[in-house]
Amino acid sequence: MTELLNYFLPDGVWAVLSGILIFYILKSQEKRDTKQDEREQNYQKIISDLTESLKDVHEIKALLDEKLK
């Protein structure tokens, strides 16, 4: 972080503030990406669970169709 500040310091306060803002944005994006990955994994698990439940529903329907014939 100090290297980044030393890089922008000769160009003035606005360059330093811009550098800090860029650093902050990159860190925030990294956190959002991590949260998005967790959500995506959770959605995949939900889809898998629903798929398994749907298979059970189809089996029950098939059994009922056989008994009602």
Automatic annotation (TrEMBL):
Segments crossing the lipid bilayer: 6-26
Give the record's keywords alphabetically.
Membrane, Transmembrane, Transmembrane helix
**Entry superkingdom:** Bacteria
Record-given protein name = BhlA holin family protein
Q: Which organism is this entry from?
A: Acetanaerobacterium elongatum
